Inverse folding.
């Protein structure tokens, strides 16, 4: 997971690029990206053939969505829910630049879920009667993506399912884009607490382990977060943190639900995705900057995690 404030020439954004675990990709609705943005000048964002589903809400300003050969007018309270394999474009109005909150996500069941949404009368764009509720859910997704927890993917799946349920419930039976008799907008702010999350978003689950050992495990994780671009070996971690290699591997997996190597690769690939999207660095330079200097190995690891090569990812997700 990589978090960044992106101050570009067309948008200012606060976003998280997220790399889920393999279990999440195979079994859950999983997060790909979440954030909020302010357009600073008019621009067109166009994508297609993207293995992703996009939901966003316009919180301020106005603009247009082009999707499936149709045009949709967007204003504050407008929501968009689309299959990104279909070509789409969205454009803020030049004299009323918008603010958006969004989430990209996917899952093996999403194609069926989206077909069900359409069969119930759902449209690519609609005006919500509960803007605050959607903003609350999107805020929780963004916050959860920035926590440290061995059940983070499960928690994100639960919140994404809540988002899908809210969309399904609100749009059921609609046969037109805007209802002219709009209901009075009511907020749906909900109190939300992640059980077990303490302090700065770190979940401490002792399970009878000594506090000193548990602290070491979080120190290891923090070290990986800060040094993933360097050459890291299990032997070096064992020596630096005074835990045998086999013991460290087992305890880390037990505590966080993922191996050290898998977590390290998640960090590296997430940072690589950011560089591929927002810099012009070569593929080789991106891999080297993320701790994977061998181009063939970087390509292999990236494709294993994302399902596509780095060059294809850059082309599909280009800003």
């Amino acid at each position: 997971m990589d978090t960044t404030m992106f101050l570009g020439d067309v948008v200012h954004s606060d976003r998280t690029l997220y790399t889920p675990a393999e279990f999440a990709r195979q079994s859950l609705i999983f997060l790909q990206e979440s954030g909020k943005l302010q357009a600073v000048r008019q621009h067109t964002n166009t994508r297609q053939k993207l293995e992703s589903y996009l939901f966003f809400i316009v919180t301020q300003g106005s603009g247009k969505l082009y999707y499936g050969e149709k045009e949709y007018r967007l204003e504050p309270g407008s929501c968009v829910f689309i299959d990104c394999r279909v070509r789409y474009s969205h454009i803020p109005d030049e004299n009323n630049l918008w603010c958006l909150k969004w989430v990209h996500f996917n899952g093996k069941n999403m194609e069926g879920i989206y077909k069900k949404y359409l069969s119930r009368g759902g449209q690519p764009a609609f005006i919500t009667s509960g803007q605050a509720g959607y903003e609350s859910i999107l805020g929780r997704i963004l916050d959860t993506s920035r926590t440290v927890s061995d059940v983070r993917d499960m928690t994100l799946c639960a919140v994404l399912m809540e988002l899908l349920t809210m969309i399904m419930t609100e749009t059921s039976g609609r046969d037109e884009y805007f209802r002219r008799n709009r209901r009075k907008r009511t907020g749906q702010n909900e109190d939300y607490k992640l059980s077990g999350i303490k302090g700065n978003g770190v979940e401490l689950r002792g399970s009878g382990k000594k506090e000193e050992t548990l602290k070491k495990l979080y120190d290891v994780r923090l070290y990986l977060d800060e040094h993933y671009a360097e050459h890291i070996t299990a032997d070096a971690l064992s020596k630096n943190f005074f835990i045998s290699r086999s013991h460290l591997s087992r305890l880390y997996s037990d505590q966080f639900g993922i191996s050290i190597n898998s977590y390290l690769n998640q960090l590296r690939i997430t940072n690589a995705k950011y560089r591929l999207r927002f810099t012009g660095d070569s593929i080789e330079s991106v891999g080297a900057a993320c701790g994977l200097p061998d181009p063939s190995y970087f390509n292999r690891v990236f494709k294993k995690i994302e399902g596509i090569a780095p060059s294809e990812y850059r082309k599909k997700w280009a800003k």
